[in-house]
Amino acid sequence: MELTRRAFVKSTAVALASAAAAGTMAGCSSLAGTGADSAALAGDTVKTVGVCRFCGCGCGVIVEAKDGKVISVTGDPENGSSRGLNCVKGYYLARALYGEDRLTKPLIRDDASTKGTPDGLREATWEEALDLVAGKLRDTWKADKSRLAFWGSGQQPIVEGYCTAKFWKAGLLSNNIDPNARLCMASAVVGFMNVFQTDEPAGCYADIDETDVFVTWGANMAEAHPMLYSRLTARKLADGNVRHYDVTTMTTRTSASADKVITFRPGSDIAIANAIANYLIVNDKYDHDFVADHVQFKQGTENLGNATDDGYDKSDIGQAVDTVEPIDFDAFAARLAPYTLEYAAEISGVPAEDIQELAEVFADKGRKVLSLWTMGVNQHNRGTWMNHCIYNIHLLTGRYARPGDGAFSLTGQPTACGTAREVGTFSHRLPADLVVKNPDHRRYTEAIWDLPNGYLDAIETPGFHTVKMFRELSKGNIDFLWSAHNNWAVSMPNLTRFLGKGDLAGINDAFICVAEVYPTLSCQYADVVLPAAMWVEREGAFGNGERRTAVFEKAVDAPGEAKWDLWMLMEIAKRVLAGEQIGGEDAFDHLFGAWYDADAAAFKGTDREVCASIWEEYRTFSNPSLNPDAEAINAEAKLKMEAKQLAPYEEYIHNHGLTWPVREVDGKWLPTLWRFCDGKQEDGFDEHGVETYGAHDKAGGVSFYKSADQRPSVVFRPYEPPAEEPSEEYPFWFSTGRLLEHWHTGSMTRRVPELARALPEALLDVNPADCERLGVTDGDRVRLTSRFGTCDITVSTAGRTRPPEGMVFAPFFAEETLINLVVQDTYCPLSKEPDFKKTCVSIEKIEG
Amino acid sequence: MKRKKTIAAAVLAGALGLAALGGCSEPMADTGATYNPGEPPLMPASHEGRYERLGANGCYGCHGSSDTAEVLLSMATPLPADHYVGGDAATRAIDGPRAECITCHPVSQE
Questions:
Q1: Signal peptide span per the entry (chain B) (predicted)?
Q2: Which domain holds residue B17?
């Protein structure tokens, strides 16, 4: 595989810019140091390397600190993902650390009846808070393990997530741990596993610079992945022949660069995708060689109904959702046959000729096509299926895993990939793509964690996924919940139920521990609030959407008594596991003693040394040769664990991040940009992987060596309607999502004055024609009501999005608006990811 | 040709001068806000809808280096050198990924 070298971000230009910027700063700063440890001299400014803590783009940053305070955050030209670029959130990161109300002391609530109010929390010592949390966790654990839970995050740095998973899975033998990443990319994960049997994007961000046609599916990159959207528009500017099709339910900022905006009826995207696949087959415009060499065909369980009720997962259909069976090409074509352009047009409201035009884009082998998608596809009652349908088109046309020709699920959070997925902080996972229900995977994990053979058999059954966890909480079936790096009281769907306005008991009776940096709405439901160090107040690492692992160095100390989450975890684990044994040894020491001194209540070394020590253990999962027992299991069970090989810790620092698999070639660790694509490792191709497991000279120069029989699965998935559709009672579709200035629930970004000024409140975007019918105008207050709940919000016809008639949109960042009171918690039956995009609502003007 | 060079030099000097002062924080004329090094200024509220209508060219007209608009005369904040191709205002071309102005310079609602 050869790359066409196209001018995009000129590294020389970026380097010059950086030099100019550095030069101007010399006016009030001395020479940069090499890390926080050299920051001792008062008055010096110290530059450290980091990575932005907001979205999944994973932009590299240079952090400058002076007198113990971060004073500026600029782009890092040496980071391969962002090449010096950032968005407004990233450039204001320094201010996000210094909101006036940072939490600096542990807080305890003595009277549970004050939950849900800003009052009732008092200051406490760490000793008192830790004893209380650990005591409650231990009591719950000893009484009934099914009644405890940890809700983590795609923002929990890698080694912290690793230790949390190890504590929960090996220490407590519990699978009741799940991350907020369940809310954003679980459908992408199940799609990857079903199609490729490996959870990873094959492509990388450089595909954006290489492609000829962009197709965005249910994605508002301009707001949610700003740096990548800037690269998309730069690619269009650089070559006037580049095209962009925006396939969406409403006009957004991302539509601005589109040559054609294809607006479809919510939920009908599967019909469109199937019509494209059908068109390609009927008109013989698919890639015969690629299909013959690489693809197998399947169909699966259909007529799934909807996962709205608590009993869905255990129902007959709920138990059958993962079942698939092989079919041949003709049978696959026959299943697609009903999806004519006309049929898809009827379901979707998109003119047949527009669908045909898009199909012809995929048919044209003279041009490269890159599909990009985000939450419109994943937060979908058939999210997993829609992921399948996009891969189906790309695999039929030989457009996958090739530079510029790919299908790329853009992940939402800074380390949803690095921690939630790669470490595996899900209720069904073990580290490194391993799953609890597979005996070989448990043996392998036992080998690395030095656990007795069969020790992890106790967790062979997956625990509560996120929605289940909060449903059980609201029903009074959870006694202990610990949450960190998230704000569930704002971000969960169907808050009417989960905040105790539906089932009253749960939230007040459960003991809830919230680790936080600012007083969020979740803190109002906490029995204990633990003040956490934020971002570069400790060292950490994230894994972004293109498989890039990057370290952010510690730049400054945390304020007041705020502590590293990892320290909290160690101190609570130490107390809970006191007196317990694993293999005849003290349980805590056995699991965590390599980096934590329980008696001294302190880490064994600096942040850097601790992170490196934990990383080296974690890295063993993808480097089985480091552990003879693991190596033997890997060989015998053919786990191919080194297929996702990670490098030694220092390599990530020296290289400002690396994309895995990282291969050692002649003493140098080389990243992989284009996975499964044959070519030289030094050029970013997967030379080592293809050579070791795959085959050369296959169609397209790619080899899907991690897939069963080395053949990804093209699975027929039919169109099935949304969980609910507009009715007389609830006549509007309601969709929600992020907007540029505010990260998720705004707990950090709303404390940055500039970001707050740019986007002060959450508005309901309404089509002007609907406003007229409703008798409302810009600035009017309306009540939004769904089957699930209600909230009040201000109307705008000049907001960020331009929904078509019959649809409205509001962002979810504002706790005073709390639109998730209204949003359904119906989830994709396969991925258990909720559908945040298609709640049906009524809109009523509030007089006065 | 000579004029172009002069303007480019002035723009660069302006950008560098402002940034050097900005290194120790400098209030912006248009919003009164104080920005630290590396922090992109917001567009003032009067610019609402401008980028959506005109795109980067609309911004460039007042903030960029050209024959028809002189940033120093118009008192608009000049594009810093790193926003140009090659880090050089004389190119009069915005570095591609920097052309999505609103990604870093949202409009103040106040």
A1: 1-29
A2: 2-103
